[in-house]
């Protein structure tokens, strides 16, 4: 602590890290609704022409989230993301070379509560994605509803977030020349309801859409496991069949959104390491109309590769030898 009470050194770094995570949590949970309110207030103010002009532009630009978005290298390299990374810390591990002449589908597990590892690794350059995987451009897929929020949609697209509907993923994987990476949190919002420290349950058994997508575009499948992703928050107990879980499942079916009642240091996550391990690619033959048997066969191959990746690396990242993935 400097004279006069100003923090310095480690204390200052910790405060910067905390501030970086606070702004990220707010962006994830509150910035979208705030942008909507600000837009509505502008619409009924003296500046209504500005809001009306922006609304017209939104209509004209409505397909952009499904057409590769509008990433911005400056935003992806903001210094705030290095403080965000160091809070936990979050790191990215490469286990195999990925040729930039091909397109890839990164299947990310587990979803966690707020997919912090996926954001840090694929929506920023804080963990060195472009250095580790030169020639590749990652696009993290996010629920389409978030891209309907004015201003917020432009902000999230700047980091490389795009809509998670099939047309969007197909646009990324269908680009000629290679170098495109569609990152999909396969377990989706449903898996967020299972996220709590030490949880290893993945919603994967009946998730076939990403497999079919890879076949249709001949995109190499890459298993990605983020060790520590589930350790960032605890949840109010919500076992399957409980009253709370029935309400959460009903909201998920109706709205397509998960509402986990999570907590750590309030809404701040625990300072717990997250290590995202990118596995070796599985070559996938391009199949315009894959049969159910082809999809099922590749799904089995993929699950085996994911389990192998987890088992090979779990000892390095604090998972006991007797703990294994639960494929649900």
Strands ordered across the widest β-sheet: 1-10-7-2-5-3-4
Described by the principal axes of the CA atoms, the overall outline is: globular
Unreliable stretches, pLDDT < 50, 5 or more residues? none
N- and C-termini, Cα separation: 50 Å
Question: What are the key terms here?
Answer:
seven-stranded mixed sheet; globular; lipid metabolism; Acyltransferase; 328 residues; two-stranded parallel sheet; alpha/beta
Notes on the structure:
The protein is α/β, with parallel strands linked by helices. It has one domain. 41% of the residues lie in helices and 14% in strands. A seven-stranded mixed β-sheet has the order 1-10-7-2-5-3-4, with helices on both faces. The chain has a two-stranded parallel sheet with strand order 6-11. Strands 8-9 form a two-stranded antiparallel ribbon. Helix 1 packs across helix 4. The longest helix has 35 residues. The protein is globular and about 60 Å long. It starts with 8 loop residues before the first helix and ends with a strand. The model has no long low-confidence stretch (mean pLDDT 95).
